[in-house]
Amino acid sequence: MVPQPNTLLFLVLCMSGVSGDIIMTQSPSSVTRSIGESVTINCKSSQSLLHSFIRKNLLAWYQQKPGQRPKLLIYYASTRAYGVPDRFSGSGSGTDFTLTISNLQAEDVATYYCQQDDSSPPTVLQPRTQTSSPGPWGRGAVL
User: Fold this and answer.
1) Sheet containing strand 39-45, strands side by side
2) Residue ranges of the domains in the chain?
3) Would you call 107 helix, strand, or coil by DSSP?
4) Do residues 50 and 35 touch, judged by C-beta distance below 8 A?
5) What residues have CB less than 8 Å from 28, skipping those under 6 apart?
6) Do the beta carbons of residue 132 and residue 43 sit within 8 Å?
7) Rounded Cα–Cα distance for residues 140 and 39 (Å)
8) For residue range 19-57, what is the model confidence (pLDDT) as tens digits?
């Protein structure tokens, strides 16, 4: 018996979400720089985040200041969110990504997180005290 097209579509959708945990690892865990200098934060994923259909890397960078919610800086690995200064830039593809902050300013002091959006369900932000994290968030880099 030949499967109906609807059945095939259902199977493809179910299979697309089947994968092991994606582990996000960030380095370094803390950075000290002077105003006006640059800093690079690295993020490595245990699986490729390059989406085969849309040809985009499903990787975002967030900035979190004490007592505040995380703020989206970069999505699709290199696209700045609205209103984010061009001092912030993202690069990388597949499993290796970087966030670069040029011409550091006092207001840049924060914790920076990478986050993958390639698997579900989404999970809450985990404490940054551990060095690697199952789930979509890296542990954070303190600047």
Assistant:
1) 88-93, 96-101, 39-45, 23-27, 133-134
2) 21-119
3) helix
4) no
5) 41, 42, 141
6) no
7) 14
8) 457 888 898 888 888 899 999 999 999 889 988 888 899
